[in-house]
Amino acid sequence: MRGIDRRLGLLFCVFLLIFSFAIARAFWLQGVRGGALRAEAHGQQVTEVTIPGQRGRILDRNGKVLAASEDAADVIATPYQVKNPAQAAMDLHEVLGMPTTDLLEPLQDRGSGFAYLARKVGADEAARVEKLNIAGISTVPTSRRFYPQGELASQVIGAVGSENQGLTGLEEAQNEVLGGANGEQDVIHDALGRPIRMDTVTPASVGEDIQITLDAAIQARTEEALARAGEQFEAQGATAIVMNANTSEILAMANWPGYDPSNLEEASDEQLQNRATGFTYEPGSTFKAFTVAAALEDKVVTPQTSFYLPSEIQVADRKIGEAHERPPIDATVSEILAQSSNVGAVRVGLAEGADRFSRWINNFGFGRVTGLDYPGEERGIVPERDEYSGSTMGNLPI
Hints:
- With 398 residues, this protein is α+β, with helices and mostly antiparallel strands.
- Helix content is 38%, strand content 22%.
- It has 16 helices and 14 strands.
- Strands 2, 3, 4, 5 and 8 form a five-stranded mixed sheet that branches. A three-stranded antiparallel sheet has the order 1-6-7. Strands 9-10 form a two-stranded antiparallel sheet.
- A hairpin with a 5-residue loop joins strand 2 and strand 3.
């Protein structure tokens, strides 16, 4: 009897030891390691994905759509769940048309829990990816920009990045208005890495539309004419603006060469720039109109005021002639402007005088931004009055 009691006591001790070990193990796993294990399990089963907000539309003055957003999808991977990365890359290449090396590199990172394989693919492509039913590969909805008018006004409209953020042009300048707020989504995977549920944590929102003064028809004709001129004269680039002089509304702002805004990777930095606002130019003979306007406003001359115009005029160390040789003549201010006479414009500028001339350059707004609220606008280079040299009043009036 005493032997049986001894065996029962020994068995009880063994059970007590096992039970104590189980209690200690449970405490260790749930108490000490609980947070880390829960985070690890969450990381293996749940992928947190940012859902970009859908951008608002850009419309021309007549309501024609110049830029809008459409449904798209990002192709994502949980690399450690992809059993055969090489085969998966080959299968995805057939659908996405991407180089297999670009697809294989993120899939081979076995320690990674998340990777983007392709951004903003079309709805049809996304459906074909899902049909492949590859463990660890899935898609999440997003949106992408499309341009119903093609390359029309591409530099003015601007470009959008992979996160639907405005990068250049109006897309950048009006990003707060156009850009909807991003949302967040949890993609829950099963043990094979297949998405079984998508939980919206924060919904994405849609941005507001903006309507601009450009007229798509006038813009198209302007770009056609500009392209012909650029090609004819083998120019490095060209720009043209059509403005309603009564209201200051910009009806067309064209740049050549253009670029395809839906294929941003092929565009150079120079092609992305709006030459109409982002470059500094000498105004050339167009400035003669401002020289004459200043003198008229100060009543230094009238349209009928006559000047003797030699073939050339000396101003300090500079000798200025006409674009084409001519004998000395007499000409009125109206004729000087109509004929775009260099010598005549210099005579008017000298009559106006450097002080008043400089003041009028500032009054006309040269050397300041226009207030167009457009990114990257240049302000021009205008010398201050105390920077004038002896020949300045021979240079600036023309």
